[in-house]
Amino acid sequence: MVRLRGGAAAAAVVLFVVGAGVSGCKKETTGSAGPQGTAAGGAALTAVDSLTVKGRAPKTGYSRARFGTAWADTDSNKCDTRDDILKRDLKNVKFTGGTCKVVSGALEPDPYSGKEVTYKRGRSLVDIDHLVALSDAWQKGAKYWDASKRIALANDPLNLLSVDASTNRSKGDGDTATWLPPNKGYRCAYVAAQVAVKKKYGLWVTGGEKAAMKKVLSECPGQKLPSGGNPTQAPKRFTAN
Fold it and tell me: What percent of the chain is modeled with pLDDT above 70?
C-alpha cells in the first residue's frame, strides 16, 4: 500500500495492532512534516463527533485503478504527486532535470518509526502513504463517489505522507482501530490527520474506529485538526476505471 512537513501545506503509515496500546500519545508530535504543518482547523477531538458512524461496507469492487492513475498531477504544477510530497517532506532534497524529480533526501526523522531514513530514487526505503487507506475509504463511502472525487482523495496532500517503507507496508488498509504508528509521539498528529481527511471527504467511521480516535485524542485535547490540501474534485481531464 502506498499512501504531508515543511513550510508548505501538508498531509500521508506501519501496521500496529491497537488494543490497550492505543493510549500513550503525547501532546508533542515527533517526526517529519505532515498534516500538523497545515493551517489549524479547530480541535481534532471535537471533530471526531462530526463523523458519521456506520458499519464497514464490503470490499467488493475495490481496486487501486478506481482511484485513477497513481500520482496524477491533479494540482497542475507539472510535477507528479509523489515528487510533490517527497519535496515537501524530505530534508536535504536533491533533484535531477529541474525541480520536480527528487533523486535523494532524508526523513529526519521518519514520523512512523522515529528513525532517520535516507531516500534515493529507485530504492524502496520511502513510501508515500495514504493516511486514510484507499481500500478503507472505499469501504466507508468512496465506493459510491464519482471518479473525480476518488482521484482527488488519492492525490490530496492532506492525505499523503512520506514514511519509512518497511514500517508502512505492515499497515495494510488498517484504520485507527487496528493500526497506529509505533512512534507514540506521532500518534496524535496521525489520528488528527485521519479525522481531517474523513471529515473533508464525508467518509464514515465504524464505532470501534471512532472510539479508538477519541481514546488517542483525549490524551492530547489541544491537537489541532489539519486543513487545506486540494479540492475534493479532480480536474475533468483525469479519469479512473
Answer: 83
